[in-house]
Amino acid sequence: MPVTQFATKERYKYQNGFNNHLESEAIEGAIPTAQNSPQKPPYGLYAEKLSGTAFTAPRSENKQTWLYRILPSCAHPPYQPAPESRAAQEGAAPSNLRFIPNQLRWDPFDHNDSRDLDFVSGMRLVAGAGDVTLKQGIGMLVYAAGKSMDETAAYYSADGDLLIVPQEGDLDIRTEFGWLLVRPMEICVIPRGVKYQVRLSSGPARGYALELYQGHFALPELGPIGSNGLANARDFQAPVAHFDEDCGATASEGSRLFDVTVKLNNALFTTRQAHTPFDVVGWQGNYYPYKYDLGRFNTIGTISYDHPDPSIFTVLSAPSGVPGTAVADFVIFPPRWLVGEDTFRPPWYHRNTMSEFMGLICGGYDAKRGGAGGFVPGGASLHNVMSGHGPDADSHEGARSAELKPVKVGAGSCAFMFESCLMVGVTEWGLRTCKKVQEGYSEESWGGVKTHWARPAGKEVKSHLAE
């Protein structure tokens, strides 16, 4: 059967909005009116509900979308373990993670072995926390891909929502809902259960990802900031409906076979079906993939004194059951003006109840040394719960003596952080196999911190015990 593609206007048309009820139809009239699942949906389509929350979740938190497709998702042979029964994420079980208090930093994760890997096979778990089977926790990942996924391949994760942060190379992502073109300095989120395929439109690709095993990402509350600032809902983009008409019901002559892979409890399973998974003619709901241009982030900062908490740089947040505490925050440090008076302007030294995994998309970061053995694009760092960290010695000395005039930092750069209230463990791949851990990171960064203490002349040390 010849393959015909349909779309609303062009391939990359988007709809704006975040967590809104959206709808899109590639053929007018594909979405039924008045009810979601009529006895006979338009054009002989099947109505299929995709739920991202429990049916009885509060209305404000309920996520669901109705898909109107040529054949339902259940029309496939049984899934079987993927070849060699290999785990999708090596060492992802909680018992295999190494929990250590030392500060860690990685050199850029390279492309040396990625030539024959696509987006799925080129993904590696660096660190994580929680238990996928209990829908609790997160996974912090990197990917390096040298080729596109096959046109007859699709993938979805039953484990969680995936936040993708490209660092090199454009990702041409086809989803059941339509197409997303995601470039460096953009991010996208693919919700749990949504099938997709990743093609490389500009050569090899590399980047970072965060898989959220519990809940969903939301925009952070703005509190006293007011109604505008940080990431605005209007700047998030969702795809429009786009489908293939390759729908042989059996593996008959002339029908293509499609390989669908699922990740369940960090193991891969696959099936081969005789119809495309990308056959959604129309959809309507509030559970869908989306992308965001980081250049649209409206940075907020001090205009008097003191360096504010990094929470003011939060793009997306996945809240926990504790108010004001996140299972995962996605935070960026884009170009911005610093004007604080009598202020140490880089991030202060601190120990945090949160775990912080940082990456660098491009340029340099004002609180960390770049160059060989430093913090450079494609690399990463991890500061676990209560592990002390802050500017390296050189950055501190420079900031301590800098002339405090208004200055714009980070021009041409963007660092980001995956921050979590969870204690994070490192996989064997992240700690040893990748061979990218920088030995002596903490000594090189803070071993040369100078002592500036000088006891004031004529001042005695007083003891309350003496009194």
From TrEMBL:
Residue sites binding homogentisate per the record: Y365, H389
Residues making up the signal peptide according to the UniProt record: none
Residues that coordinate or bind Fe cation: H350, E356, H389
Cofactor entry: Fe cation
GO function term, MF aspect, one: homogentisate 1,2-dioxygenase activity
EC number annotated for this UniProt entry: 1.13.11.5
Active site: H307 (proton acceptor)
Sequence ranges assigned to domain Homogentisate 1,2-dioxygenase N-terminal in this UniProt record: 13-294
Family named by the database record: Belongs to the homogentisate dioxygenase family.
Protein name (Swiss-Prot/TrEMBL): homogentisate 1,2-dioxygenase
Lineage: Eukaryota, Fungi, Dikarya, Ascomycota, Pezizomycotina
